[in-house]
Amino acid sequence: MKLDVIFSPAGLQPAEVAGRPVFVIDVLRATTTICAALHHGARAVVPVATAEEAMRLAQTLGPTDVVLAGEQNSERIPGFSAGNSPLEMTEAMVRGKTLVMTTTNGTRALLASQNASEVFVAGAVNLALAGARARELLRSRRDLVILCAGKESSFGLDDAYAAGRLVLEALEGRRRRKGLNDAALVAVDLVRRYGDRWERPFTFSAAGRQLAKLGMQADVADAGRENAYPVLPVFHDRRITVAPGGVPTAAP
Predict the structure, then answer these.
(1) Disulfide check for 5: which of 42, 65, 184, 222 has CB 3.0–4.6 Å away?
(2) How many domains does the chain have?
(3) In a domain, 243, yes or no
(4) pLDDT tens digit string along 51-82?
(5) Is residue 237 part of a domain?
(6) SS3 65
(7) Are 230 and 247 in contact (CB under 8 A)?
């Protein structure tokens, strides 16, 4: 069993993810926003590399069925219906729609993972479901990758802490070292430092401070609401949809 954390997709080689399940994390904010959109009834999310590609695809799919969503430097792209905020992903905005989405960091990480056997979207808002799937995969002796989007091709405290939380969920709380790469050990150590308070690493991180400066503290707070959007998104065939079994079952 191997569980590797990668702190940024910069320089990622296809062989590093080929044939392995990958969990992509961009808590501030793309993976949180994707979970919010699917939780509130979006049909799918299609990540693309650029705003121009997003607009072309929206025209192809039909503008009445599409929501253009995304940001550049944390702010909504001109002409887009939505930014990259989970709070914008209301049922009125997204139910029955396909989101075509581009962001500074998160969509890049998703697109870098396409050689993986499976690609799941993870964050604080769906930690229980993402952790349960990671445990299942480890029990079946699969090697996992947790890929952080990071910030502008470098380390991001918010994503690294979230990766540590997912590692511990995958290991059922056991603080083992065997099979973990150095980045996974660092991510787990961040959890030791900050405990279970998501708001501390989120607000201390460069991404969190940038969002606060832009008046988007509510997005940071929403991203730290553990299991607030209990869906498990899977990226397959260029689309992100809810994975089979990726919603919680109702209590009897």
Answers:
(1) 184
(2) 1
(3) no
(4) 999 999 999 988 789 999 999 989 999 999 99
(5) no
(6) helix
(7) yes
